Amino acid sequence: MSIKVKKLSSISPLGQLGKFKENPLAFLDELKETDSDIAQFRIANRKVHLVMNPDFIKDILETRAAGYRQSSKFDELKPLLGEGLITSEDPKHKEQRKKMAPLFTKEHMKSYRLKMIGTSEQFYSQQREGEWNLSDVMMELSLACLSRTILGMDLAETKEKIGAPLYQILEVGTKRIQSLLKAPLSFKVGEIKAYASAIDELNKTVDEVILVRNEKNYSPYDFLKMLLEACEGNRLQARNEIMTMLLSGHETTANWITWCLYAICQNEDVKQNLYREVDHVAGRNKLTPAMLERLTYSKKVLNESLRLYPPQWMLGRTAVNDLTYGGYTIQKGDIALLSPYVMHRHPKFYPDPLKFKPERFQEGIPKDVPDFAFFPFGGGARGCIGNHFAFQEALIILSMFIQKFDIQLVDENRIVPEPFITLRVKDGLRGEVWKR
Ligand code: HEM
């Protein structure tokens, strides 16, 4: 098989680092235009391969996943996450994933949705009309749904005991992930000191919840009870997994809904269809699980939003040995970059790729789109364990918003994506929101 490779050369000792850091999405978009299977470039002394062939992506994430290890970007967050699902490596990861998988089946989702509905209902009832920073609002609500479901905590408790330290951790942690020069974490002064004490505070809260819950008898579908069983009573492991969920499950979902609101405001016909469906299915009544099943157009809108604005815009893997693709070799130590953002916007797989068209997802993922040309939740043994959880939560938060509010964006022309750990709206999405 002959494959098309685009090689970028650079005389700078840092290679393409400057260009990549300045505007990663523009950099990737330019490479996509070359219509290559792989684009190769250098970041400092590391060879990097942006893989744009869906079969090779499948190979990296699924078929020969053992030939690669996770990118080290979460190492900075190890003091918080310990050896949870995201940070652990095989054989520990494999064992732990097997134990945790039963908590995330579609059947279990049904038992979580009443908690998500109740939390969203209460949250929205506390909001006033006016200008909202929708990015912040969705962040708070998605964290509240997550924390209610996995820890049984209410809105106020979540805000004070989970939200406050978690945002402090994320602020410092993400800054450190992005910077090349940083003081070691053992150097506990200034920012690092605040980071360490926010981690201690969050650990203490979660430990207390675990301790109290461990002694009580809860319903068979109680998340924390099941998690403790999955961790065979190991409370430290349970805490690591909770931290992992809090971190991987809230910003992603919040950004998904935020981008979705942006997209519908940009596409009046989609917006009207969405309002029509929610009004038809739910009207002014309390949202019920049965109604969620019938929100078929809303699900397409959510999928199309994941396509154009995938919260996890880039995944990274390091090769642990040489791997060959049709005569081309990714060498041991090289980095393979896999970008849902690039693949989901590729004209080879999506006609008119920049147009927001929920109809593409008529019956799930379009049949002519190859596996791994749509992979917002990654794939293989390290694919997102929370995909059904996230989908259900996003559907509840979005449809209830539509049911209760109308929205007009403020200053919509200045909205640009900011590829942080997840794909955010730079400086937050602002909108005028009023009750219906
Ligand atoms: C829009 C929402 C979400 C998106 C787009 C998303 C995306 C992803 C992706 C792409 C990965 C794979 C990363 C890689 O291979 O490097 C991943 C892993 C993971 N996600 Fe999600 N996620 C979302 C929501 C959630 C939620 C709600 C939870 C938990 C409640 C969650 C928990 C996890 C965990 C634990 C992993 C690591 C799995 C492993 O390595 O075994 N995610 N997610």
TrEMBL record:
PROSITE patterns: CYTOCHROME_P450. Coiled coil: none annotated. Keywords: Heme, Iron, Metal-binding, Monooxygenase, Oxidoreductase. The keyword Nucleus does not apply. It holds the Pfam family p450. The keyword Transport does not apply. It comes from the Bacteria. Belongs to the cytochrome P450 family. This is Cytochrome P450. It comes from Rossellomorea pakistanensis. The lineage of its organism: Bacteria, Bacillati, Bacillota, Bacilli, Bacillales.
